């Protein structure tokens, strides 16, 4: 079964997304934006450790290996973990636009089961922008770019101000991230254009 709800269809006045001139070059790894991020942070023992790199235009390519800690059914990835991998990959797209944005809606199709040890190969692309709304889509394949599709998602991200994180995040982590002496790391923790 497949389908997309009407809120994920760009309106008639939507425009094509524009890659920021300072976006990383195609093939360049994005690295982790925040070490405690469940999706990409190295400090998360059971996190996804997802590695994303810039693609052409407004595309991202990412890979993550399903670990034993990611199981739902015996030997198979938990659906929520797969949705997290899609969310993280889609979220990384905003780095190409240099827009701070959070997921408002994420619709996921689980097409086939994903065994532990699988390398999930993800491709995501921004499809349209309408004001604060950023529309995007992603696909996850088993093993590599020619592998069978296991998951796919459509998403709506909403542009926010950095205050979104400062006002809502737990004080302890906000203070730690803001007092990081590394300016780039400080900026990326909040997904801000450095
Ligand atoms: C390398 C480093 C990269 C960085 C890599 C980073 C990866 C990070 C991980 C991935 C990203 C995440 O998981 S982010 C974390 C998960 N997401 C969140 O925590 C977001 C929680 N939700 C919120 O804070 C809020 O609901 C917002 C910000 C999404 C929206 O609130 P708002 O700003 O007040 O906007 P609001 O006025 O309600 O709505 C504005 C317009 O958007 C529409 N809209 C709002 N929400 C929705 C929705 N869920 N579905 C449909 N439409 C919606 C409204 O109808 C309205 O349309 P109209 O009337 O104007 O037409």
TrEMBL record:
Chief location: membrane
InterPro entries reported for this sequence: HotDog_dom_sf, THEM4/THEM5_acyl-CoA_thioest, Thioestr_dom
A single cellular component GO annotation: cytoplasm
GO molecular function terms noted in the UniProt entry: hydrolase activity
Alphabetized SUPFAM superfamilies for the sequence: Thioesterase/thiol ester dehydrase-isomerase (SSF54637)
Localisation per UniProt entry: Cell projection, Ruffle membrane; Cytoplasm; Membrane
GO BP annotations listed: fatty acid metabolic process
Chain residue ranges for the region called Disordered: 1-29
Keywords attached to this entry: Apoptosis, Cell membrane, Cell projection, Cytoplasm, Fatty acid metabolism, Hydrolase, Lipid metabolism, Membrane, Transit peptide
Catalyzed reactions per annotation: (5Z,8Z,11Z,14Z)-eicosatetraenoyl-CoA + H2O = (5Z,8Z,11Z,14Z)-eicosatetraenoate + CoA + H(+); hexadecanoyl-CoA + H2O = hexadecanoate + CoA + H(+); (9Z)-octadecenoyl-CoA + H2O = (9Z)-octadecenoate + CoA + H(+); octanoyl-CoA + H2O = octanoate + CoA + H(+)
Residue stretches making up the Thioesterase domain: 75-136
The protein's Enzyme Commission number: 3.1.2.2
Membrane topology: Peripheral membrane protein
Protein family: Belongs to the THEM4/THEM5 thioesterase family.
Full protein name: Acyl-coenzyme A thioesterase THEM4
């Amino acid at each position: 079964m497949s389908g997309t709800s009407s809120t994920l269809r760009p309106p008639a006045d939507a425009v094509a997304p524009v890659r920021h001139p300072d976006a990383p070059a195609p093939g360049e790894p994005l690295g982790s934006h925040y070490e405690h991020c469940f999706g990409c942070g190295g400090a998360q023992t059971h996190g996804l450790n997802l590695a994303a790199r810039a693609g052409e235009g407004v595309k991202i390519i990412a890979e993550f290996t399903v670990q034993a800690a990611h199981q739902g059914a015996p030997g198979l990835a938990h659906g929520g973990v797969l949705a997290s991998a899609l969310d993280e990959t889609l979220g990384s797209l905003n780095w190409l636009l240099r827009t701070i944005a959070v997921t408002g809606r994420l619709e996921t199709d689980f097409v086939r089961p994903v065994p532990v040890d699988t390398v999930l190969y993800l491709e995501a692309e921004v499809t349209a922008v309408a004001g604060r709304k950023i529309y995007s889509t992603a696909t996850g394949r088993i093993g590599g770019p020619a592998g069978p599709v296991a998951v796919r998602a459509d998403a709506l991200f909403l542009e926010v101000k950095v205050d979104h994180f400062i006002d809502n995040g737990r004080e302890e982590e906000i203070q730690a991230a803001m007092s990081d002496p590394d300016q780039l790391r400080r900026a990326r923790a909040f997904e801000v254009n450095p």
